[in-house]
Design goal:
503 residues, Archaeosine Trna-guanine Transglycosylase, Chain: A, domain 4, Rossmann fold, 4-stranded antiparallel beta sheet, 14 helices, 23 strands, binds calcium ion
């Protein structure tokens, strides 16, 4: 059996878990000429050399040589097309109408003074520099065992540690990206918007640099400088004293019913395979449409996975200005990659290829399915906080842990789709993991939250899984349900994107 996504497609994706054998009869009077593994492509018609190979109704490449019907269409038989040129893209030419509002969906969240809503109640300890990280992590372990049990309404204690803060050209172009990202993570809605701040004293990224205008509001008294303390024990005692005071404040917070429009959901994929674009990503796209209809914010990201589908997105931009902002982000990243003698084709991994993805064009066409069908309402640059509701493109690298770090600047729930599988998680937000194949959901029954592979085998529709994801998001945002990543306490380290020079 195979899946043909679009009627124009001249390749199908093999669905059978064990693949198909040579000589096996396939629907449409096609005979497999050779064994073809699951997720890989079968030629549904004969192709001449140079003819386009079509998937999702779009060209994913050109046949390097003549390909007979029933053949396994492998990566080396497809020549990758150039990326869509950025100079002449259609802007706002096919803006989808405002969707029918979805009324009445709510969740139980924590309202913050700055207007944001938390989905968890966490004591966050912000750090200005990597030098303090082990000390803060030591203190956080002590806080968790000695203090947290006395504050039952607080979910967790998170040391917001990272690799940035010193030994960098902090005024160079690009430095604003990690600084902006870390500032927004430190002020995260799930930490009530008010962190404790631990600084070393001599670092480049001083608290006033990290928090800028927010520091007077947070108060200098919230800053602990390790170089001001006498010895390690006093450093830890100072952090514990401040933590106890803050825990008492956090413990008084209560969840309250808020509209679903307070959700800010970050979407990304990791370890994609050929099914990602037909199962989990379209289902997440359907959930994204439901969220947008409910008034929420949904952000998709990963520049190198959008670059080859940008011509499908600029027509959906609500205004030409938004379309131009999207192009600006693509161009910035093209130039960033060119400085490293690379281009967007450096994105695909050995796992992607094993899973049947021939190149970045095929991966991108499947990836942008996460964006659903609504108008693109805003573009946020790297590490920026989003203030617009609806569908947003938030520029990030595609690297899972860097994308997740950057999306923490704004999101209160994270949805992560995967084909090859990753036990990824984040400390600050629930991460809902959706698998592209049932085999992965079964193998990793205690890591995958939702199996979208049922779509490939006809046991569920895109709409059904989309609703399931939407309901799961509301449940987990309300704290009624934990994700598997939370259950096991899986938290990847923060990896801020630093395109600037290191000294
Ligand atoms: Ca990714």
């Amino acid at each position: 059996m195979y899946i043909r996504v679009n009627e124009r497609d001249n390749v199908g994706i093999i669905v059978d878990p064990e693949g198909v054998g040579a000589g096996q009869a396939l629907p449409g009077a096609i005979t497999a000429r050779e064994a073809i593994p699951q997720g890989h492509k079968v030629a549904l018609g004969a192709m001449e050399a140079g003819e386009p190979v079509l998937r999702y109704g779009h060209t994913i490449g050109f046949a390097e040589r003549a390909i007979p019907v029933g053949a396994w269409v492998r990566e080396e038989m497809i020549r990758m097309p150039a990326a869509p040129p950025l100079d002449d893209l259609p802007l706002s030419t096919a803006v989808p109408p405002r969707p029918v509002p979805l009324e009445g969906y709510r969740f139980e969240g924590y309202r913050n003074a700055d207007g944001g809503v938390g989905t968890r109640n966490i004591l966050g300890i912000a750090t200005t520099v990597q030098c303090v990280a082990p000390t803060v992590e030591y203190a956080a372990r002590r806080i968790k065992t000695e203090l947290l049990p006395h504050f039952p309404n607080v979910d967790d204690v998170v040391a917001v540690t990272h690799s940035y803060g010193c030994g960098v050209a902090i005024d160079a172009p690009g430095a604003e990206i990690p600084i902006r990202t870390l500032k927004h993570i430190s002020l995260h809605a799930n930490a009530g918007g008010v962190p404790l701040i631990v600084s070393l004293g001599c670092e480049k990224m001083q608290p006033a640099r990290l928090f800028a205008n927010e520091l007077p509001v947070l108060g200098e008294a919230n800053v602990i400088r390790l170089q001001d303390e006498r010895g390690f024990a006093e450093m830890v005692a100072a952090i514990l004293r401040a933590a106890e005071k803050r825990l008492a404040e956090l413990d008084r917070r209560r969840r309250e019913s808020v509209p679903a429009s307070e959700l800010v959901v970050g979407l990304q994929c990791g370890g994609s395979d050929a099914f990602s674009g037909v199962t989990c990503n379209p289902a997440v796209g359907y959930a994204a449409d439901l969220l947008v209809r409910a008034g929420a914010t949904v952000a998709f990201s990963e520049v190198t996975e959008v670059r080859d589908a940008v011509h499908l997105l600029t027509p959906r931009a609500e205004t030409p200005e938004i379309g131009r902002a999207l192009i600006r982000e693509m161009r910035w990243y093209d130039e960033y990659l060119a400085r490293g003698m690379a281009d967007r084709s450096a994105n695909t991994t050995p796992g992607n290829k094993r899973g049947g993805l021939a190149n970045i064009v095929e991966k991108a066409l499947g990836s942008v399915a996460k964006s659903g069908t609504t108008a693109l309402r805003a573009v946020a640059t790297h590490g920026e906080k989003i203030s617009t509701r609806g569908l947003v493109f938030a520029a990030t690298p595609a690297s899972d842990f860097i994308c997740g770090t950057q999306q923490l600047a704004f999101m209160n729930v994270h949805v992560f789709t995967t084909g090859e599988g990753s036990p990824y998680g984040l400390a600050m937000v629930p991460v809902v993991k959706v698998s592209s194949r049932t085999a992965l959901a079964e193998k990793w029954h205690d890591l995958i939250d939702i199996d979208a592979g049922r779509i490939a085998t006809g046991r569920a529709t895109v709409e059904e899984v989309g609703w399931e994801i939407f309901q799961f998001i509301l449940e987990t945002a309300s704290g009624r349900r934990k994700t598997w990543a939370e259950h096991w306490g899986l938290a990847n380290g923060l990896a801020p994107f630093n395109p600037g020079p290191v000294t």
